[in-house]
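Researcher: Let's walk through a ligand-bound prediction step by step. First, I give you the protein sequence. Second, the SMILES string for zinc ion. Third, you return the three-dimensional complex as structure tokens. Ready?
Model: Ready.
Researcher: Here are steps one and two:
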Amino acid sequence: MWTNKKYLYNKINEFNKKNPGFICSPLPKFCESKGINLIAYNESNSHLINISKDGFSFLEDSEYSIFYNVNQQKPRQRFTIAHELGHIFLNHHNFLSPRLLRFGKNGLWEEQANIFARNILIPADWEDYASTLSNYDAAFIFGVSQQMLSVRKKTFGEDKYWMDVCNDGRQCC
Ligand SMILES: [Zn+2]
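Model: Step three, the predicted complex:
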């Protein structure tokens, strides 16, 4: 069932196992390798800005496209793209009509995409390494904002808990 934690954390585990180099790979290259169109836009395109100031994704003819605002800060762009990848790898578009997802809308989907994003940008098993670094260095290395990093540090425990529960095959939802 797509709404439960087991579905979410199983998808995260699967993604991280299949894409071990993700945290070091430039996102345009990663998207290209997955056949996902990654398209930059800015304020000059009011139609796209009206859809979202950050980014959005959609599915059309079995092809995914992620649009992102290239004028946002780089760490924010990276989070937006990872968030949209979350929607894609969690198959959210298949539950929607029209098949378009905007950053910041749609309740549970958003929460799931945010959890997915933080777990692919800084996987939970990188906690020990991240804790040896200053926030400034860790944010730089992982390509995230310091704000995202401090939120991330508070969620390692929760993510490890759910991954352990799912790995045990216990009932988790
Ligand atoms: Zn979203």
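Researcher: And what stands out?
Model: The longest helix spans residues 146-168. The two ends are 10 Å apart (CA to CA).
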